């Protein structure tokens, strides 16, 4: 870590690492301690009392954030010609099939989400090496392999994200931008946490939500009092 800037020192002095902040206070403080020239992402980290190595304790799901993500999401639809127009009308950035499969084989991954249909999945097997490590492989569980492509495109453009717990038992997601109003961030946090609670595995023992932290790309994490989220 290099020398702290004056702003970073001021920010660090404002954060009480021993404190669990009420959600509204944390969101206000986050705005005060983020000094970036760009519109930083607001990130949430939720440590869960689950063992992700056990299949029956895997927490993964999708959530539609009421305030959107604030990110421009680039969507590729790999679909048959009869669906192309509807996919474009719904807001897909790229639409097609074989020519995009060839582009991806050549290493093109200038996209954030790929949506496809069950009948096309067979053609995507060969792309696993490129798409897998980047988290771009379509999956029925996250709604990206679907018969209703236009609906999936609209939802993703409006702020639907998918998430899953990592090996350390932490769910990490970007849930907005620092330029959002406090109310918009709070609405997204509440919706995200409500979804996490709904996904609690019946086999998980003890405390399910162990800790919740909010941070931005460049700020320290603020510990949130989980009770304030449910309030």
Record keyword descriptors for this entry.
231 residues; alpha/beta; four-stranded antiparallel sheet; three-stranded parallel sheet; 9 helices; globular
Quick take:
34% of the residues lie in helices and 21% in strands. By secondary structure, it is an alpha/beta fold.
Layout: helices, strands, pairs:
Blueprint: H1 6-14, H2 23-33, E1 41-48, E2 60-64, E3 75-78, H3 81-90, E4 94-96, H4 98-105, E5 113-116, H5 121-124, H6 128-131, H7 149-158, E6 160-164, E7 170-177, H8 182-198, E8 209-216, E9 222-224, H9 226-230
Parallel strand pairs: 3-4, 3-5
Antiparallel strand pairs: 1-7, 1-8, 2-6, 8-9
Helix pairs in contact: 2-8, 3-7
Average pLDDT for all residues: 92
- Number of H- or I-type helical stretches: 9
> Structural class of the secondary structure composition?
alpha/beta
CA-to-CA gap between the ends? Answer: 38 Å
């Amino acid at each position: 870590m290099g020398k702290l800037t004056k702003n970073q020192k001021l920010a660090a002095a404002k954060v009480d690492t021993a404190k669990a902040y009420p959600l509204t206070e944390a969101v206000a403080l986050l705005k005060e301690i983020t000094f970036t020239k760009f519109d930083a992402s607001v990130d949430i980290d939720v440590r869960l009392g689950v063992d992700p190595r056990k299949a029956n304790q895997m927490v993964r799901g999708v959530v539609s954030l009421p305030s959107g993500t604030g990110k421009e999401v680039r969507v590729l639809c790999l679909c048959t010609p009869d669906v192309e127009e509807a996919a474009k009308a719904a807001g897909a950035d790229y639409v097609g099939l074989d020519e995009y499969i060839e582009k991806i084989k050549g290493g093109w991954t200038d996209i954030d989400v790929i949506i496809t249909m069950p009948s096309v999945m067979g053609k995507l097997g060969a792309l696993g090496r490129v798409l897998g490590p980047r988290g771009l492989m379509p999956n029925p569980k996250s709604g990206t392999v679907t018969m209703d492509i236009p609906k999936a495109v609209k939802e993703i453009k409006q702020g639907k994200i998918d998430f899953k717990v990592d090996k350390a038992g932490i769910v990490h997601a970007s849930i907005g931008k620092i330029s959002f109003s406090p109310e918009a961030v709070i609405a997204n946090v509440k919706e995200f946490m409500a979804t996490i609670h709904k996904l609690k595995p019946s086999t998980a023992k003890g405390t399910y939500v162990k800790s919740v932290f909010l941070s931005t790309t460049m700020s320290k994490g603020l510990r949130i009092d989980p009770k304030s989220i449910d309030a």
